[in-house]
Structures are given as structure tokens and as C-alpha cells.
Amino acid sequence: MEANGIVLSPDPRLRQECAVIEEITPAIEALAEKMKKMMFENGGCGLAAPQIGELIQLVTIDCDYSDKSDYDPYVLINPVIVEQS
Predict the structure, then answer these.
(1) Distances (CA, A) of 16 to 3, 42, 69
(2) What's the mean pLDDT in 59-72?
């Protein structure tokens, strides 16, 4: 199931292992820009590539913006969790 182009749980794509990004290509850069735009338009603070149907390790995050003027998300490629608490 999808809403506004975003894949929703319990869609099985959200549980699949995602591919490592081997090279940052223009297509990866365009996808990151698309994700930043989608995240802002949907009022989100994070969006992972599988949530838009792309099974790769890419995520955008911005938890501190209030409007377009201070919207400046991080783009993480092949993120790894090294510690949790």
C-alpha cells in the first residue's frame, strides 16, 4: 500500500535487505533530491529509499526544520548503526 508515493507498512519491501550503493552517480543524486522534496512535502523528518520503492541504502533526515527557509536535510548513503541505547 502507498500514500503520496510513500510505501506504507506492512508492505514486504520495507523488510527486505537493501543493496549497498557502490558509486554515487547522477541517478543517486537525483533520487536523494527527490527524497528530500518528498519528505518536506509530506511533513516528515526522515525518509528511507525503501519507503519510495527503491531497495538501496539511502536515507534523508531533518528533524529541526520549521519551514522551507531552514530545511537542510542530511543525506546518508550506506548508513551503519554503530551504537544504540
Answers:
(1) 19, 24, 35
(2) 91
Cα within 13 Å of Cα(13), Cβ side:
15
Number of domains in the chain: 1
Residue 83 inside a domain? The answer is: no
Considering the domain boundaries, does residue 52 fall inside one? yes
Residue 46: which CATH number?
Answer: 3.90.45.10
Look-up of cell digits 550503493: 21
Q: pLDDT tens digit string along 17-43?
A: 999 999 999 999 999 999 999 999 998
Q: 30: which 3 cell numbers?
A: 537525483
Listed in sequence order, the residues at least 6 apart from 38 whose beta carbon sits closer than 8 Å to its beta carbon are 4, 5, 6, 44, 47, 52
In a domain, 84, yes or no: no
Q: For residue 82, tell me if it sits in a domain.
A: no
Alpha carbons 63 and 9: distance in angstroms, whole number: 22
